[in-house]
User: Fold this.
Amino acid sequence: MTSVSGGSDDGGSARESEPLVCARCGTVAEGPQPTWTCSVENGVRQYFCDTCSRENLRAIEGRLDSAWW
Assistant:
């Protein structure tokens, strides 16, 4: 899993003005730097809240190549 703090590779200009929204449950992040899980799926960056990340940890880790664990 990768933790994020709301920044992005483009210098953060577009991402900083938009709150993070969980791709699974729709929870909106509170505060400027939440610690959420980031996943890139089909080239699209998606964020998952702490609750969804914990509830689906086995499925998330199951997709990682063995080099990650």
